[in-house]
Amino acid sequence: MSRHEIRSWLMDMDGVLVRDELPIPGADQFIARLSERGIPFLMLTNNSIYTRRDLAARLRASGLDVPETSIWTSALATARFLENQRPQGSAFVIGEAGLTTALHQAGYTLTERDPDYVVLGETRTYSFERITHAIRLVSAGARFIATNPDATGPTPDGPLPATGSVAALISRATGVDPYFVGKPNPLMMRSALNAIDAHSETTAMIGDRMDTDIVAGLEAGLETILVLTGVTSREEAHRHPYLPSRIVESVAELVDELG
Q1: 12, 116, 150, 208: the active-site residue
Q2: Quick check: is 12 catalytic?
Q3: Is residue 135 a part of any domain in this protein?
Q4: Which residues does 107 contact at the CB level (< 8 Å), separation at least 6?
Q5: Over the range 17-41, which residues count as b (16 or more CB within 10 Å of their CB) and which as e?
């Protein structure tokens, strides 16, 4: 596919636009150019803690003006998936405002008794009591959904256990594996494409992780662009059995492509 055919863009947040709350050089120009040209784009994140409004405010504090409507989270993708699967259903949720708000907006009832689903997302403080309750509900037959498979999340002090690690704990206790909605599930990419009425053939995915961003983009049929401003080096990228469409130093290299 010719690069000139790209009409819409999906991109990860951490490692692509910001790193440790600081904007990556050129990210502000890239976002500004997309907005000026009216090019559809979505910032994708597997983090389900924050609402779109929260994330837009955090990005503004980092010097990036990203509208709420241009943000897509694993919480929103999970809510959309459940709304399609079982409209007006019920869920026991381990998570924060990003996830609970998305589920409420999708018409879901949050309950601790006999839910259709146990939905696991990111939270700053995992409660042993709520994890125990989730285990009992899944063992009793509730369907098990997790927003994303990330085992750890980055902090300035080092990695934190994330959704994938807690999901493994629940799975080990119940013998039931969750259905992960977020990256690298192509479902996350397709829900994002649908949200901006874009087509895979004319959309690019920019990411800094081969095992989530790039493989998800590849499996969804998108052009994939790996940036080296995050966790993956050029050498590490070439160790994988698949490659991105191209590798660039940062999003700053892509500004001129937007016209």
Answers
A1: 12
A2: yes
A3: yes
A4: 83, 87, 88
A5: bbbeeebbebbbebbebbeeeeebb
Q: Do the Cβ atoms of 247 and 228 come closer than 8 Å?
A: yes
Q: Is residue 52 domain-resident?
A: no
Q: What is the pTM of this model?
A: 0.93
CA angle 177, 76, 247 (to 5 degrees): 85
Q: Is 14 a catalytic residue?
A: yes
13-52 per-position pLDDT tens digit: 999 999 988 999 999 999 999 999 999 999 999 999 999 9
Res. 159 pLDDT band, cuts 50 70 90: confident
Range of the domain at 246: 3-46+183-258
Two tokens, residue 244: 């991105």
Looking at the domain assignment, is residue 235 inside a domain?
yes
Element (H, E) at 130: helix 128-139
| Catalytic site residue from 14, 150, 208, 213 | 14
8 A C-beta contact, residue 252 and residue 231: no
Question: Mean pLDDT across the chain, nearest whole number?
Answer: 95
CA 81 to mean position of chain CA atoms? 14
| Structural domain count, the chain | 2
Hey, what amino acid is at 65?
D
The amino acid present at 78, given as its one-letter code, is T
End residue of a domain, out of 148, 180, 212: 180
Summarised one tens digit per residue, pLDDT across range 182-239 is 999 999 999 999 999 999 999 999 999 999 999 999 999 999 999 999 999 999 999 9
